Amino acid sequence: MNFQVLEVRIPKSWEQNSTWRHKRCNRSNTYRNRSFIHNMSGLVCHRALILIDHGSKVPEANDQIAKVASLVAKRLPNTFVTFAHMELAKPDLMEAFTLCVENNARNITVCPFFLFPGKHCTVDIPQMAQNCASKFSRVTCNVVEPLGVHEKLVDIVLERAGFPIE
């Protein structure tokens, strides 16, 4: 397959952040292999969604993003859905990105599975995505904002705390 990188986009509000270009610190760690989650529609998917979290040394913590990706995949039958960890666990973003491209994705959206736009979301993940996209041609990559402040999160907080949702 012959691909060409068309662009890597990050939210405009992050471009004004003078620290977004800082280098990511590399760590050498032992990684545990994880399975990828993706849709099983049998259709060729030209769009892909990668959910990325921090990663943990605790395998059960890493399993959570796989479960979320599986739930998302059920709602997006025409999109290739997978997950990645920034560090401490596998798959990493490059492995997830490669899997998306191998499955015919031309437009890859990277969604940081974080609550707020700290350094990982505004600096590290966009740089990692740009690095991944540069390895392929004719592929666009878009890094979206993290979960952030959202009305639906309020419902989750109330439910977990045992308060009625009105």
TrEMBL record:
Domain of life of the source: Eukaryota
Metal-binding recorded as keyword: yes
Alphabetical list of Pfam families matching this protein: CbiX (PF01903)
UniProt KW keywords: Lyase, Metal-binding
Entries under InterPro entries matching the protein: CbiX-like, Sirohydro_Cobaltochel/CbiX
CDD domains tied to this protein: CbiX_SirB_N
Transmembrane segments: none
GO molecular function: lyase activity; metal ion binding
Protein name per the record: Sirohydrochlorin cobaltochelatase
